[in-house]
Amino acid sequence: MYQMTERKNYKLAIYLWLAMSSTAVYAQKKESKKTEKTKTEKTDSTATKVKNINELLKKGIYKKGLFNTIQVKTDIYFEIPDSLFGRQFLIVNKLSQVPMQVNDAGLNKGMNYENKVITFHRDSIAKKVWVKTIVPQVSSPKNDAITASVKDNFSESIIEVFDIEAQNNDSTSVVIKVNKVFDGNQKSFNDVLTNIGLGGSVKANLSYVENVKSFPENIVVKSQLTTSVNEGGVDLAVTLGVTSNIVLLAQTPMQPRLADPRVGFFTEKHWFFNDGQHKMDEQKFITKWRLEPKEQDKEKYLRGELVEPQKPIVYYIDPATPKQWRQKIIDGVHDWQIAFEQAGFKNAVIAKEPTADDKDFDIDDVRYSVITYAASPKANAMGPSVVDPRSGEILESDIIWWHNVMTSLHDWMRIQTGPIDPKARGNKFSDEHMGEAIRFVSSHEVGHTFGLKHNMGASFAYPVESLRSKEFTDKMGGTAPSIMDYARYNYVAQPEDGVTAITPKIGTYDKYAIEWGYRWYPTSTTEQKSLRKLIEDHQDDAAYFYGEQQSYLSTIDPRSQSEDLGDDAVLASQYGMKNLKRVIDNLMKWTYDDGKDLVSAGKLYYGTIGQWDMYSNHVLANVGGIYLNNTVFGNDKKAYEPVPAKMQRKAVSYINDNVINLPKWLFFNDILDKTYAIKNSPMGPYEQTPYTMAREMQYGLIYSLFTDDRLLRLLENELKHQELNSKEEIYTVENLFDQVREAVFIKKSELTILDRMTQKNYIDALIVSTNKLFEKTTVVGLKIDQTLQMPVICNFLEEDKMVRNINYSSMKRVSEVTTYKRAELQRVLALLNKKKNNGDVATKAHYADLIIRIKEALK
User: Fold this and answer.
1) Coil, strand or helix: which one is 281?
2) Is 139 within a domain?
3) In degrees to the nearest 10, what's the CA dihedral of 607, 507, 466, 665?
4) Among candidate residues 626, 670, 487, 662, the one with its CA nearest the CA of residue 565
């Protein structure tokens, strides 16, 4: 009875709602038509009538600049003069404030997230201003016939339109209302949520334009934009402070400098067309500051005298930077003076704190290059630049300096130099010692803002034994010829060597690269000849070698690796292992803090194991490694040189000694009585049990040793050797399997748990990688724990775009890789069948298990 009554009442409610809604809809439609009519009449009456600017000026605040601005309450207007219609502007968008959720994701104040080139166009008939954008990657001579086609085939796109609200007395400027492109209503000028990966849309009622400043060559607009993110089913408000700069680009772009792959600069792609071509000219412009001698000094400069540039490169120190680090950061910038002097300029680079004289100073203003200090748990630093894409000219640079970068520096120094430097052993270093490390990072990041890429091949120039020489290291002043390498601290030197110069410095390559990129030449013809000669004069000197950054998990050229030292990874790692043993022996002493927990000890222990893993990977890269040289017509270098067989054999011996036979002093020691290795995770410190950690890390290295790409590189070399009847000794896939198998299975009759672990890891790595090739496994793809590696600084995405792409692995399914892996499983199966009745109970069970696994895999 209750249900029936409820249902009747429910139907009645629907009926009444529909009746009321019909009346409401009719009334709403009537009102809407009335409003629409009024709106149309209003639009029609104002469409042909543009106000005089004086009407707005009576109500608002007027400021002069690139565009004069008028603010009427919350409305923002730009007054655009006719002279600027058709000129190119660069929109530069940056984060200026971030809440916890965004900070935690690694995004911070000062980060540039979106740039685009725009032009404004006045439409006097429609009384509108159109905004267009273009990718300025294409050019052609003004008077060539093909230029008409270039214009039509690489045209601008319309991204925004504004009504002309007013004009000045003589109609030489018009006024547009711009709120919509800065308050989040439109994404045409600033699409912050998409570009930082949040997605969604801006909540207009919770967003507003905060401030507008206008200067002679740029406008700065600051906004507060709010969105929401869903976390655990709850919508959380996220408000971002964003700054949009509109920068007037020079009518005549800087004369670009063409890139050469033998010197490491960031580049801008460019396509050049002309009537005389048989094909389009694909060019790359290096990114560089416009550094030129003053007109009156050009003759002096050409005579070889040092002169000051027309406009020096100036960096400002963020006032939020702790005082004890400011001078060290400034020193790190000024360390580059010597490099620019080699290019002919003195006082070319200046770093300073803003003073009262810098009354317009604003960190978010693109007129100021700032070393921004970010309060964040992120341990990083980076040096991106704002570039004029038409020429590669660097307009402004912002180094982002995360507060917690000191944790990475502390880990590096303690693990890599603690055995030889008493100052690098405590839980906290002196400000002076940490300050020197900060100076080094400052120099490295500033190098990026000059356009320099990482030179991961620089450290290969120094013989390993020279890094143990006090005389050599004092003379060279660092661990590599370039501070742009990730050649951190001297882990090669032993305590008895007395080496004290252990911090990377500006080196030979750095000075050479700056000279190549920044020396001024009066004509393009002179420039091209001189730059070519500069490279050719040094092409046989290892100190001038440039090695491209490679992906950590797919290193081809072992000379160009991150975090390595010297010209022999095996020897360097052997010295490094001796020092790691010293760290382990002293770890509890160096981390002692009376009454405190042992988390810091556990973290240092984890980092030390990570250093061992890094050494193993440095060595492993030599197996199947190829030296990649940038060859040009006219030099006698080989483009692809296999790592010598002797070096590959030595590398595998190191892997056998330090991975197949795990260093027990590293994984099983007295530290475990007090703490396990502790890894940081989003959920807090995460303790790693020794057996699990050893098993996982050994497996990752064995799997990496037998990746398809590595074996294919060995096969490529063997094929080339056969077909060309080469007499050189080579290292083959069979050599690799024979050498490792002997180390894995040459064991006593009774196997330990670690012996059995190693054999299982060896077999499983072969089975999984073979099955993956034919997609016949449900095993999730191997995930190697890269957090074990020492922390990486400034490994930003732009580097990845520049890496050489060499195809070694197409059609792997029909290559010899699977044949070799299955043949190896057959060999091991035969070996196990001979051993299966030997040993204790655990050993026999182990052999039986392996036999079943291999048979199952081979079917």
Assistant:
1) strand
2) yes
3) 0
4) 487
Residue 396 CA neighbour count, 13 Å, CB half: 24
Distance CA 761, CA 743 (A): 13
The answer to whether 285 and 256 have CB atoms below 8 angstroms apart is yes
How far CA 163 is from CA of 4, 69, 156, 201, 804, in Å, comes to 61, 16, 20, 24, 49
User: Tell me: the pLDDT tens digits for 325-337?
Assistant: 999 999 999 999 9
User: What is the total count of domains within the chain?
Assistant: 1
Number of residues assigned to the chain: 859
Side chain identity at residue 732, one-letter code: T
Max alpha carbon distance in the chain (Å)? 108
d(Cα 335, Cα 591) in Å, to the nearest integer? 33
Q: What secondary structure does DSSP assign to 804-816, as a single string?
A: ------TTGGGSS
Tokens 């074996």 map to which residue?
A: 711
DSSP alpha helices (H): ranges in 746-840? 753-773, 817-835
Using an 8 Å Cβ cutoff, are 602 and 495 in contact? no
The per-type count for the chain, helices as H runs and strands as E runs, is 24, 25
Residue 790 has pLDDT above 90, yes or no: no
Helix (H) or strand (E) holding 654: helix 645-655
In-domain check, residue 324 = no
**Residues 556-601 pLDDT 10s:** 999 999 999 999 999 999 999 999 999 999 999 999 998 899 999 9
DSSP 249: P
Q: Look at residue 238 and give its three-state secondary structure.
A: strand
Q: For residue 166, what pLDDT is reported?
A: 95
Q: Say what the pLDDT of residue 811 is.
A: 76
| 8 Å CB contact between 567 and 461 | yes
* Distance (Å, whole) CA 841 – CA 751: 10
Which residue from 213, 207, 197, 278 is spatially nearest to 247, judged by alpha carbons?
213
Average pLDDT, whole number, for the chain? 89
Q: From CA 604, how far away is CA 595, in angstroms rounded?
A: 18
Does residue 802 register a pLDDT over 80?
Answer: no
CB neighbour class for 844 (10 Å; exposed up to 12, middle 13-18, buried from 19): middle
The β-bridge partners of 225 are 240
Amino acid at the residue 534: L
Residue 794 pLDDT class (50, 70, 90 cuts): low
How much of the chain is helix, strand and coil, in % rounded to 5? 45, 20, 35
pLDDT bucket at 40, cuts 50 / 70 / 90: very low
Q: Tokens 């398809």 map to which residue?
A: 708
Does some domain include residue 509?
no
pLDDT digits 0-9 by tens, 631-651: 888 888 889 999 999 999 999
> Which residues, 6+ apart, have CB-to-CB distance to 39 below 8 Å?
none
Is residue 92 a contact partner of residue 386, using CB atoms and an 8 Å limit? Answer: yes
Please identify which residue in the block is written with the tokens 């002997």: 742
- The tokens describing 261, both together, are 């792959």
Print the domain residue range for 226: 55-248
CA pair distance 420, 39, nearest whole angstrom: 80
Cα 90 vs. chain centroid, distance in angstroms? 23
Pairing relation of β-strands 626-628 and 640-642?
Answer: antiparallel
- Using alpha carbons only, what angle is made at residue 808 by residues 828 and 268, rounded to the nearest 5 degrees? 145
Cα separation of the two ends of the chain: 69
Amino acid identity at 232? G
Burial (0-12, 13-18, 19+ Cβ within 10 Å), 73: exposed
Alpha helices in 539-637 (DSSP H): 569-590, 599-620
Q: How far apart are CA 609 and CA 584, in angstroms?
A: 10
Q: Compute the CA torsion angle 97, 101, 105, 109 (nearest 10 deg).
A: 10
| pLDDT of 780 over the 50 cut | no
The answer on pLDDT for 17 being more than 80 is no
- Give me 329's structure tokens: 């950061």
Q: Which of these, 282, 250, 247, 251, lies nearest to 268 by C-alpha position? A: 282
The amino acid present at 854, given as its one-letter code, is I
